[in-house]
Amino acid sequence: MIVPYPAHLGDVRYPNRRDTATEVEDHMASAIHTEWDTLSNQFAEVAEQSGKFIVAVYGGRRVAGSGIVWRPGIVVTASHMLRRTDDVEITFGGDSRHKATFLGRDPGTDVAVLRLDKHDSAAPEHLSEASTLRLGQLVLAIGRSTLGDLAAAAGIIGRLGAPWQTWRCVKIDTLIRPDVTLYPGQSGSALVDSRGRVLGMNTSVLARAATITVPTATIERVINEIVEHGGVFRPYLGLAMQAVSVPTELSSKLKTGQNSALMVMQVEPESPSSEAGITLGDLIVSINSQSVSGIEDVQRMLNKAKRGDSVDLGYVRGGQLASVKVNLADRPRR
Fold it and tell me: Which residues pair with 175 in a beta bridge?
């Protein structure tokens, strides 16, 4: 049946479904572009504001590294980017360079500290703790090129984890691995969030084929140690050891209940252990009455030590259990 068109409606045009769908798509596209422009402008503003405390550091390499004015007059940079420690210069961009005094470095965290003669330099207003970070959070790596201009790379927090140890057996307070590519000269750059808060310093040498961000808590501790003592205390025993199985008869005789211990394979001359009388072939079974069965146990205990500390080293020699006090010393810089 054909229904006649109502004459009283006049020249009414019903909406076309295709036109409506197109309008919706256009509206969605416009909204996405607006959001994108807002985010883009926000990151551009963050990069511009961060540039006030980002420097290029000239330390004798073909490519300059990046650095962060962490505190007024204090710059942190990547230690591996400093080939020399005298005649170091920095720039905030442009043709002018400023002298910087080398205060110290900590290869274990790849952090070096410089004192800037330019005392009116800006520093970050906000340092963010790792506890505020979220996996997948958008971040920017802000550094400077060898020419002194700002360089940025965007990404997300690709991995966020608990405290960990580097290949140098040094503790980093939080594992922060941004999905960010560090271009030449960006080791020592700052990782910042969308609000411009500094999350840490980026480096390319603490993990194989990955960017690692040294968190603010670790950097603060390193700066304080270097400013006060000229270096970070890294205690060592001066022993080369290998994990070995403890015979059941020996374990029963000594009543240690251990299945494995550490055999001394080498004693470094004039080291803390050498001065305490530890010799080749001794079997290390405990530190401060806590049993040790692997190198990681020793490193974990040493990481808790402070300047001036000593440890009680339990060892077996000639089938007899004994102990000796070892005064810890700072690991020699080589």
Answer: 161
Q: Which residue has the tokens 């305490």?
A: 276
Please enumerate in sequence order all residues whose Cβ is within 8 A of that of 74, keeping only pairs 6 or more positions apart, or say none. Answer: 113, 114, 115, 116, 123, 223, 227
Tokens 């810890």, residue? 328
Q: Based on the number of CB atoms within 10 Å of its own CB, is 3 exposed (0-12), middle (13-18) or buried (19 or more)?
A: exposed
Q: Cβ of 140: how many Cβ atoms within 10 Å?
A: 23
DSSP character string of 174-206? SEEEES----TT-TTPEEE-TT--EEEEEESSS
pLDDT of 81-131, one tens digit each? 999 999 999 999 888 899 999 999 999 999 999 999 766 667 887 788 888
Which residue type sits at 114? L
Which CATH code of 3.90.190.20, 2.60.120.10, 2.30.30.100, 2.40.10.120 fits the domain covering 28-232?
Answer: 2.40.10.120
Q: Where does residue 179 rank: exposed (0-12), middle (13-18), buried (19+ CB within 10 A)? A: middle
Give the closest residue to 116 by CA, choosing from 89, 144, 83: 89
Q: How many of the other CB atoms lie within 10 Å of CB of 125?
A: 11
